[in-house]
Write a structure and sequence with these properties.
The chain is of the alpha/beta class and about 210 residues long. It folds into two domains: about 1-105, Formyl transferase, N-terminal domain (Rossmann fold, 3-Layer(aba) Sandwich); about 115-140 and about 155-208, Rossmann fold. It has six helices and nine strands; from the N terminus they run βαβαβαβαβαββαββ. The protein has a seven-stranded mixed β-sheet with strand order 3-2-1-4-5-6-7, with helices on one face. A two-stranded antiparallel sheet has the order 8-9. Helix 1 crosses helix 6. About 35% of the residues are buried. The structure holds 5-O-phosphono-beta-D-ribofuranosylamine (GRF). 5-O-phosphono-beta-D-ribofuranosylamine (GRF) binds near residues 15 and 91.
């Protein structure tokens, strides 16, 4: 009997280095999954090229041709449902998802954010961490709920902030950790190793 692979959708808007990290982990058999869809809301996102280079199904959906955000999101929902996606990975997807979308895939959407949440939610967070004078920052993989960057935290990684850092050097250091913990978090979900308990994500205690 052949078992169906765990199906990922990766939603992107930009460079796609996190998408690449996920692709690499699948190709190295670290992740027992397949990427069934790479979806971008930005036409020239380099992430689409990365997907194509690996023979993936890549789609650009232009938000501008839909009358409103709800219609646009419905189109994405329909596409994801048609492909029986098990997990939706937001990887630099620059659009806030609405209630309907989040409810349609409850507990099945995760995001990577370049700060140690709950510090510095939102945009330009490497700049904000530097300006604030933080000595450490990092990255967070979390489930997506209706609170922006506020869902239950799956994994985090800490990076130091050095005196000589600028946005570029700090972003680079954080991204290196993103590429490690995003696939790790996906693996925890694929292997059914975690459960959500209130705000907390806990390791499941396995019998035997
Ligand atoms: C990453 O810093 C991620 O944390 C944030 O957007 C950036 C995406 O980078 N959400 P990339 O497109 O994966 O290279």
């Amino acid at each position: 009997m052949t078992s169906e692979k765990f199906k990922l959708a990766v939603l992107v808007s930009g460079n796609g280095s996190n998408l690449q990290a996920i692709i690499d982990c699948i190709e190295k058999n670290y992740l027992a999954a397949e990427i069934s869809l790479v979806l971008s809301n930005v036409k020239d996102a380099y992430a689409l090229e990365r997907g194509k280079n690996h023979g993936l199904d890549v789609v650009f959906l232009d938000p501008k041709i839909y009358p409103n955000r709800a219609n646009y999101e419905q189109k994405i929902i329909d596409l994801l449902l048609s492909k029986s996606i098990d997990l939706i990975c937001l990887a630099g997807f620059m659009q806030i998802l609405g209630k309907k979308f989040i409810e349609a895939f409850s507990g099945k959407i995760i995001n990577i954010h370049p700060s140690l949440l709950p510090a510095f939610p939102g945009l330009d967070v490497q700049k904000k961490a530097l300006e604030h004078g933080a000595k450490f920052s990092g990255c967070t993989v979390h489930f997506v709920n209706e609170e922006v960057d506020g869902g239950p935290i799956i994994l985090q990684s800490i990076v130091p902030i050095h005196d000589e850092d600028d946005i570029e050097s700090l972003s680079k250091r954080i991204l290196q950790q993103e590429h490690i913990i995003y696939p790790e978090a996906i693996r925890l979900i694929i292997e059914d190793n975690i459960e959500i308990s209130g705000r907390r994500v806990l390791r499941k205690i396995k019998e035997g």
